[in-house]
Amino acid sequence: MISVKGLKKHYQVKQRPPGLAAALTALFSPQTKTVKAVDGIDFDIEPGARVGFLGPNGAGKTTTLKVLSGLLYQSDGSVTVDGHVPQRRDAAFLKKIMLVMGQKQQLLWDLPPSETFELNRAIYEVPRPAFDQRLAELTELLELGDLVNKPTRTLSLGERMKCELVAALVHGPRVLFMDEPTIGLDVSMQVVMRDFIRRYNEKYGATLILTSHYMDDVAALCPRVIVIDKGQLSYDGSLEALAKKVRPEKRVTFRWSSAVDPEVLSRFGRVVSSQAGEAVFQLPQASVKDAVGKVLATLPVADLTVENPPLEEVMSELFSRSRAAQKPVEAAS
Amino acid sequence: MSAVGRTLRALPTMMKIGVSEAIAYRAEMLVWVLSTTMPFINMALWSAVSAYTPVTTAQGRTYGSADFVTYFLCAFIVRQIVSSWASWEINWEVRSGALSMRLLRPMHPIVVYGSGNLAALPMRLLVTFPVVVLLFITGAFAKLPNTASLWALWLLSMFGGWLVTFFINIAIGSLSLFMDSSIKVMDVWLAGFFVFSGYSFPLAIAPSWLSTVAHYMPYRYQFGLPLEMMTGAHDLASALPLLATQWGWVTATGVLAVALWTFGVRRFQAFGG
User: Fold this and answer.
1) Considering Cα of A257, then A259, then A265, then A271, what sign does the dihedral take?
2) Beta-carbon contacts of residue B146 (< 8 Å; ≥ 6 apart)
3) Which has the minimum average pLDDT: A273-277, A321-325, B52-56, B165-169?
4) At A302, phi and psi to the nearest 5?
5) How confident is the model at residue A219, as a pLDDT?
6) What is the CA radius of gyration of chain B?
7) Residues A288 and A213 in one domain
8) Pairwise CA distance, residues B221 & B245, whole Å
9) Rounded CA gap, B79 and B91, in Å?
10) Which chain A residues are closer than 8 Å to B268 by Cβ?
11) pLDDT tens column, B8-41
12) What is the pLDDT of residues B35-46, one digit of tens each?
């Protein structure tokens, strides 16, 4: 469905130090710098897959999505999406895709969202019966009700984002590029959005590439992740394997039924945190059983949980490792 | 051909929603209309001038107060109809990254900008209605063309004038894809417009060198020619060559606009998210 080979996107960016003298100098002798936003990445994505595209700020994620959706022209390499070259932006391609950006909106600000849906129906040439059916489905799934008939400017962020999704999906795109679709939303709305995106993917077999700084989005939606940092690929595989590879340990949390001397805890393994009534250990997978058995036998355990380390920590460690391994290159968003 | 068919099929809905948007922006529209009342100021100014000293054309015809009233009332109407603001829209959308959403749709953005501008016409025509009434009250209507063919050519010149204005807007707006902002380029363009288009004074009373220069510039064909046609300055024989020139400008500015847009979009950096 999506094939990316040796993708590079380099920008020339003007640079100058602060101050009037520098401003005048830059007027006659502008200095530019090459920013390597994406610096040679390769990957393929199968139809219907849900892939998380991860990386720190300025890693090149959004740039890659913009190249895939035809907004940006790459500096080098080749990209195809369902057999189309995105940069040609032919109508057949644009009808198959949609880029949803949490920080950009397509809804007409002073009109109700229903007007934007109607506009998209006309522009994307969606037959009326298909449009009515899909709109009814999407409206029901997202529990929009009468919201679609209120001026967009009067809707809350969460309501607007739900309507943005409907506007993005009325033409039934087969490839969805989602850039931070849950940004700024409260936790319950994030759950609604994730659930909706998964159901859309399962029902229509749409391919999904998602970027998000909320690891819960990625964990809930994406069995596969591609990690990019400073424009280069640092991991491509399953999320589970990534967690095991970067942090091959388990988090074990014990809750005590009575007070425990903190001094004794280090005997059982590495203590991540310890506070009144609770302690968290980070233990190698192989020694979890043994260590838990010892704690249970020795200390007043009321309850315990065994988890993988938080994804945020896994990613943070991965980024610091890949940065240490890479030669310094310029980064951009 | 399929792209044209797709555009034509979508156009009625785009126009309908564009009109809804224009109505939703009614307060902003009213303020904008107030900013286009310059013809009334020019009318008062030139009427006063003509009361003190004779104003004559190069051909020796005297321009009286009634002529200026007719000219500037018509100027207001023409200005309302041949206007375009696509340049400002493009500048803002390039700088904010909002252009991305437009580029993702399977419809050429130039068509979408055009339909958005044309959709504001009903509101603008509403604004011109009191001025049309004034034309009747002042008796200025008697000076307007009196044949259907001249009115038909006037309509053609209005459409041509709008197209030149629109394409210039697209061309200048597209420059924002090459430079940080092209708003100042538009300001320079407007400075020329105020001098060479017939907006500030009838070109007929301008010095001959200025009339000659204006004849070879696009300003006259985006505004001056439709206004001259409306005020009965041309008969059929003199109008046709001018219309041919105007449509030459339509073609030239259209080619320039599409070329600058096409090359400019390749440089689009889709900032802001």
Assistant:
1) positive
2) B232
3) A321-325
4) -95, -35
5) 85
6) 20
7) no
8) 8
9) 22
10) 71-72
11) 888 889 889 888 888 877 677 777 777 788 899 9
12) 788 899 999 999
Task: Determine the Cα–Cα distance for residues B242 and B248; give it in Å rounded to an integer.
Answer: 10
Q: How far is CA B191 from CA A37, A214, A314, B38, B194, in A?
A: 41, 51, 60, 14, 5
Among the partner residues B100, B103, B106, nearest to A123 by beta-carbon distance: B106
The reply to whether A222 falls in a domain is yes
Q: Which residues of B touch A (CB under 8 A)?
A: 2-3, 6, 9-10, 12-14, 17, 20-21, 24-25, 97-98, 100-101, 103-107, 266, 268-270, 272-273
CATH number reported for the structural domain that contains residue A274 in this entry: 3.30.70
Name the more confident of B273 and B151.
Answer: B151
Q: Are residues A158 and A282 in the same domain?
A: no
Q: What is the pLDDT averaged over residues A186-193? A: 83
Kindly report, residue by residue over A274-329, the tens digit of the pLDDT: 888 899 988 888 888 888 999 999 889 999 998 887 787 888 888 887 777 765 44
Which chain B residues are within 8 Å of A102, Cβ to Cβ?
A: 273
Same domain, A78 and A224: yes
In a domain, A320, yes or no: no
Specify if A327 maps to a domain: no
Gap between the Cα atoms of A219 and B93, Å rounded:
34
The number of angstroms, rounded, from the C-alpha of B163 to the middle of its chain's C-alpha atoms is: 8
**Same domain, yes or no, for A101 and A170?**
yes
Could you tell me how many helices (H) and strands (E) chain A has, helices first?
Answer: 11, 13
Its domain, for residue A177, covers 2-243
CATH number, domain of A199, equals: 3.40.50.300
Complex-level ipTM:
0.81
Q: Which residues from chain B sit within 8 angstroms of residue A105, using beta carbons?
A: 101
Same domain, A180 and A253: no
User: Percent of chain A at pLDDT above 90?
Assistant: 38
With an 8 Å Cβ cutoff, are A89 and B10 in contact?
no
How many domains does chain A divide into? 2
Q: Note whether A198 and A145 are same-domain residues.
A: yes
User: A312 lies in a domain?
Assistant: no
Say yes or no: A103 and A192 in one domain: yes
What's the rounded mean pLDDT across residues A99-125?
90
- Asked if A119 and B13 come within 8 Å (Cβ–Cβ), the reply is yes
Last residue of one domain, picked from the residues A243, A271, A290: A243
Asked if A135 and A267 sit in the same domain, the reply is no
